[in-house]
Amino acid sequence: MCLLMKSLSKLVQALLILIFLSSISSFIYSFAFVATGVSAEAKSDQPAKGRKEADSLLKWKASLDNQSQSILDSWVGSRPCNWVGVTCDTSGSITNLSLNHLGLRGTLHRFNFSAFANLLSLEISNNSLHGILPSLICNLSKIYLLDLSSNHLIGNIPSEIGSIPSSITNLGNLSILRLWGNKLSGFIPSEVGFLKSLKTLVLSSNVLSGPIPPSIGKLRELSILYLLDNKLSGSIPHELGMLSSLSEMSLQKNNLTGSIPTSIANLKNLSILYLWGNKLSGSIPSEIGFLQSLKELDLSSNALTGAIPSSIGNLRNLSILALFDNKLSGSIPHEIGLLSSLSILSLQENNLTGSIPSSITNLGIYPFSDYGVTSFLVLYLQKLGS
């Protein structure tokens, strides 16, 4: 009897071990099946994304004129990674679209921006696109480069989003925004200040009006700011002095008024400052002498008054100094002779008095003008051989 009980006990133990091993085997099989299914689903999803992107591009291509469709003759089938202007990542999803200088004619109305979840750059500059700038462009959440410059885009956009879509602020990764050379109108939306990753902002040669939004001062990464050749009005916001990374600022050919803000003294990295062709008044701030990285300074064709600040002599890297066509008075400061890098000095059409400082001759520049140079008016000075 005791022997029988021992045998039964061993049999039960064996059965339990078999059941345990069977359970583990089933679990491993189920896990492997699920994992394989997820992997297969992910892999099958990749071609699906590629087809969706391809279909979207083909629909946009079909909306362009016949010549444009011929230019994009490689755009056939469902594998866009080999198409002209298209770059994909390893999964086959489109990351870059570069269609510059192709002569494309049409609109962006049929461009399905929401289809390109992984698009990093969109460049369609120097073409003949017309119509509005769609607000749906904000769906490109990963994009860092957007260049639609030198087209015929216009500002007939619903007033609730402005002539440049205020929804563009969803583009948190955007580093470069070029929209110059179009016909965009209306105000620059204040929401542009939310584009915290922006390093280059080029909105020049449009018909933008209204003031420069002070919110631009929040763009601490901004290196290049080109707003020239528009119809901007109002004063230059002092908040621009907060752009500590700024190297080039071009605000010329607008209708800007008021004085040059003293806050520009904070722009230690600024190398180019163009404010010419506005209606700026008041004196040239002495703080301009703090811009020691400055290479080109053009304040011409404004209504600036007062004396030329002697602090300009601190700008030892300055190669171009253009102050002509203002209402500047007083004498030419001899400190200009300290500008050892200067090649062009234009002070004509002002109310300057006194003689030409001898220190200027130390720079190796000579005066010339079709009208001659008098002892009280410097018309134009240029370095020999330049």
From the structure above, extract its key features.
disordered N terminus, 18% helix, 2 helices, 386 residues, eight-stranded parallel sheet, alpha/beta
Note down, in words, how this protein is organized.
This protein has 386 residues and is of the alpha/beta class. It has helices at 2-63, 66-71; strands at 86-88, 94-98, 105-106, 121-123, 128-132, 145-147, 152-154, 176-178, 185-186, 200-202, 207-210, 224-226, 231-234, 248-250, 255-258, 272-274, 279-282, 296-298, 303-306, 320-322, 327-330, 344-346, 351-352, 365-367, 381-383. It is elongated. The strands form three sheets. It has a 14-stranded mixed beta sheet with strand order 1-2-4-6-8-10-12-14-16-18-20-22-25-24, with no helix packed on it. The protein has an eight-stranded parallel beta sheet with strand order 9-11-13-15-17-19-21-23, with no helix packed on it. The chain has a three-stranded parallel beta sheet with strand order 3-5-7, with no helix packed on it. It has one domain (93-383): Leucine-rich repeat, LRR (right-handed beta-alpha superhelix) (Alpha-Beta Horseshoe). The chain is built from two helices and 25 strands.
